Amino acid sequence: MKARDNLAYAWQTLSSQPTRSALMILAMAIGVGAVVVLTALGEGARRYVLDQFSSLGTHLLIVIPGRAETSGGTPGVLSGVTPRDLTLDDAAAVARSRQVARVAPLNVGAAQVSHGARGREAVILGSTAEFLHIRHMRLAAGRFLPPGDPAHAASVCVLGAKMRSELFGAAPALGAWLRIGDRRFRVIGVLAPQGQQMGFNTDETVVIPVAAAQQLFDTPSLFRIMVEARGRDSVERAKIEIGQILKARHEGEEDVTVVTQDAILSTFDRILGALTLAVAGIAAISLSVAGILIMNVMLISVAQRRSEIGLLKAIGATPATIRRLFFTEAALLSLIGSLLGWMIGWLASLGITWLYPALHATPPLWAVLAALGMALGMGIVFALLPARRAARLDAALALARR
Fold it and tell me: What pTM, to 2 d.p., does this model score?
């Protein structure tokens, strides 16, 4: 039999049992669709993280108190291991490096913010005028924190867009006074809406001078020091020089961690890449289940089609021809199921992107090709046993149904 005849015969056989064929196609489609959707989610998460870090600029370094090697995990405040606090003097020393363009000391805390009868809990960022440029923020009105001595605790603040609308409504905010904790601050600026950045909603923050934040939270230390290198080529040199400066200031102790943006991106990329492969592997298990279903149904089909197989052998069909017929049926089922699954996964990915535009859930090409190839391979591999059993049937016994 020619390939065209094999295909026509297989299609006719599948069409004669629509319910059975539809169930096998659906099983394969679910497996392929699961692989496509889950890898699209993993790829979307990876791209989201990369975009979030890219929005912070390309020359960013972050100085964190504590050493990752000695703390056994995340350095600094989060791990509870801080041999020495970072201070404003440390930030000033780092700013004198020739490889550094800008430095923004940072304090973070939460406090009650109120204006008149309106109030809410908010994230308070303590920093300097350089923070606006390092974080690539934009102003909607007014001005940012005034430049000058970072140790000067000026009673001024800059509101996030959502904070401004919740505290002032339609009333003007610039020049107004509000209360943060037990202190009063005058509003000098309002940030443009920017939404989430690294899981942190800048629209719901209040930015105050770093010295004022230290007084508000009663701490002399800094949470982080954010540094912008002079250029892409200066990042590694800046990292080394910052480490040397702080080591000299901290009596020869290497008690800080300088993290570059590329290192953070590389770490997240590896983690999310591994996660994407893991969920794809889990989803691929359903393809094995679909392949087993095809094998079981085709084994039953061999028993039901003994007379048909006997007749084919009686008119000259060889065992190889019988095997090809069953392989063609399995391949046709797998092909239709995998294409249907790809369409389902693609539509589901579009739906996820529509619901969550920031995620951009697009399945990577390798995942689509791997899912389609695995589906076809599973269908053919699990058709081996039924095909061999059909090919071994004796023509006379098969026609006699014995």
Answer: 0.61
Angle between helical axes of 319-355 and 365-381 (0-180°, round to 10): 150
SS (H, E, C) the chain: CCHHHHHHHHHHHHHHCHHHHHHHHHHHHHHHHHHHHHHHHHHHHHHHHHHHHHCCCCCEEEEEECCHHHHCCCCECCCCECCCCECHHHHHHHHCCCCEEEEEEEEEEEEEEEECCEEEEEEEEEECCCHHHHCCCCEEEECCCCCCCCCCCCCEEEECHHHHHHHHCCCCCCCCEEEECCEEEEEEEEECCCCEECCEEHHHEEEEEHHHHHHHCCCCCECEEEEEECCHHHHHHHHHHHHHHHHHHCCCCCCEEEEEHHHHHHHHHHHHHHHHHHHHHHHHHHHHHHHHHHHHHHHHHHHHCHHHHHHHHHCCCCHHHHHHHHHHHHHHHHHHHHHHHHHHHHHHHHHHHHHCCCCCCCCCHHHHHHHHHHHHHHHHHCCHHHHHHHHCCCHHHHHCCC
pLDDT digits (tens, 9 = 90+) for 314-354: 666 677 777 777 778 878 888 888 899 899 989 998 888 88
- Cα distance between residue 51 and residue 48, in whole Å: 5
Tens of pLDDT, residue by residue over 112-124, are 999 988 899 999 9
Residue given tokens 């063609």 in the structure block: 328
